[in-house]
Amino acid sequence: xxxxxxxxxxxxxxxxxxxxxxxxxxxxxxxxxxxxxxxxxxxxxxxxxxxxxxxxxxxxxxxxxxxxxxxxxxxxxxxxxxxxxxxxxxxxxxxxxxxxxxxxxxxxxxxxxxxxxxxxxxxxxxxxxxxxxxxxxxxxxxxxxxxxxxxxxxxxxxxxxxxxxxxxxxxxxxxxxxxxxxxxxxxxxxxxxxxxxxxxxxxxxxxxxxxxxxxxxxxxxxxxxxxxxxxxxxxxxxxxxxxxxxxxxxxxxxxxxxxxxxxxxxxxxxxxxxxxxxxxxxxxxxxxxxxxxxxxxxxxxxxxxxxxxxxxxxxxxxxxxxxxxxxxxxxxxxxxxxxxxxxxxxxxxxxxxxxxxxxxxxxxxxxxxxxxxxxxxxxxxxxxxxxxxxxxxxxxxxxxxxxxxxxxxxxxxxxxxxxxxxxxxxxxxxxxxxxxxxxxxxxxxxxxxxxxxxxxxxxxxxxxxxxxxxxxxxxxxxxxxxxxxxxxxxxxxxxxxxxxxxxxxxxxxxxxxxxxxxxxxxxxxxxxxxxxxxxxxxxxxxxxxxxxxxxxxxxxxxxxxxxxxxxxxxxxxxxxxxxxxxxxxxxxxxx
Length: 591
Hints:
Shape: globular
Helix content: 40-55%
C-alpha cells in the first residue's frame, strides 16, 4: 500500500468537553491559591495548639492540592480510540496472527470450576479463525476438579461454538448468555436447537458443580482420560509435579465440532509446586504460560484474563488487532488494555468497585501521554515486548513471516518436552522476572574480572552478545511486588514501547466485583500497599521512568502509587477540626 493510499485501522479523537474541563480545572486552581493566601495571611500568633493545628491543616491542604494536580495532568488532553475492524478484514484477513489466550485460576473452592469453564468457553467462541486460537488455563491449585471441568468444557465446545455462530450469540459465555437470553419463538427448528444446547450446558454445569461439592472424582470419570493418572503422584496443591495436558490439538484434523469445523487448541497446565521454592503467584504462573505456549503455538499476540473475566464481545480480538496491525502506528504498540468492567454491580453500588472515574477519565488521559498502565487482565500483549524486547523504530513487523512458524512435534511429545518449562527449577540462574540492567551489569562485571588472553577476547565478546540477545527473550512479568502487572507495564514502556487504551461501545470483558465489605477492604489494601511499595522502591515512576517515558506519564503513575498516602492527610483533616471545634479554635474563615 502506498503512503498516499494509507487509511488507518484506528482513529484517535480528543475527548469531548476538554475546554470545559480546563476551565473547571482553572477555577479549582484559583480556589487553591485563595486557600494558600488565607492560610499564610491569617496565620495565628496565639497559643501553641492553634499554631500547630493551623500548620497541620495547611500541610494537608497542600497535599490535597498536589494530588489534585497529579489527577488533572493526565485528564488535560484525554483521547479515545476508535478501531475499524471492517478495514482490517478487507486488507489483512489472510495475515491475521495466532492468538494465545492465558486464563489463570488458583483455588476451585474460591473460583468455582463451572465459572472458570464459562470464561474458557467464551474465549473459545471468539469471532476469529479457530485454527489461530490457543487457550491455556493455568491452574495454580493443581486440582483434578478443574481438570475434569476442562474436559467437560472441551466436549461441550463442539456444540457451543457452532451454536454461537448460528445464533450470533453475545455474550459467548454460556452462563451469562442463558441467564439473560430469551428463547427464540420464530422458528420451531431453531427453538429445538436452542433448548437442546441449553440442556447440554445445564447438564455439564450440574455435573461439574456436583463433583466440586463432593470434592472428588469418581472412578468412572477417571477412566475417561489418561490425564487423571497425574494426580496419583500429587501430594498437595503446594507439592506436586508439572501437569500438562493438551485437551484439544487444533492441528489434529479430527479436532472438529459437530459441523466439521476446526476447534481451537485447548491446554491445561498446573506448574510444578514444591514447598522449598517460591512460586511468585500470578506473575510466576504467567511466565510459565509464556514459556509453554512458545513451544506449543507461539502466537505473536497474547491475551491474559482472570478466570472470572469472561469475554463479553466476540469482536475484541479484531478490535485490538486494528491497533497492532496498523501500518504506520501499530509497530510501536506493546499492549492494548481494555477496561475492567463488572456484571454484578447494582445500581446503587456502595463499595466503589465500578472504577468509573478511572475508566472514563484517567486511563484515556494516560493513553494520550504514552499509554495506560497494565492492570493485569483484559490485556492484549505483543509477545516479544512482554518477553523483554526493546522497541526498534527501524524494524517493521512481518505478519506473514510470523504466521509461517509451524510446530512439528505431536501433542504427546509436546506434553513431555514442555513440562520442564513449568518446573520449579527452570527459572534458577535465568532472567525470568528479573531486571535486564541488573543481569547485564553482572555479566559485564564477570567478564571484566576474568583474566583474558588476546585470543579469548573476541570469543568472550561474542558470548556477551549472545547473552545480551537472550536476555531480551527471558524477562516476562516482574517478581517481588504485589502489583506485578503495574511494574511490568512500566518496564515495557521504559523500553520505548507505547500502549493503547481501548474501550469499545460494547464492553470487551465482564468480571465479578467484590460484593462484601471484607472483600473490598482486602482487595484495596493489597492494591494500595503494592502501589505505595512501588513508589518507595527504585521502580518509582519518577526515578525508573526518568527520561524514559513522558513526564506526564510519570506523574500519572503517581496517582495510584500515592493513593494510600492520602489516608494520612484525610485522617488529619477529619479528626483535628473536630477537636478544635470542641476547644473553640477557629481554623476556617468566618462567614
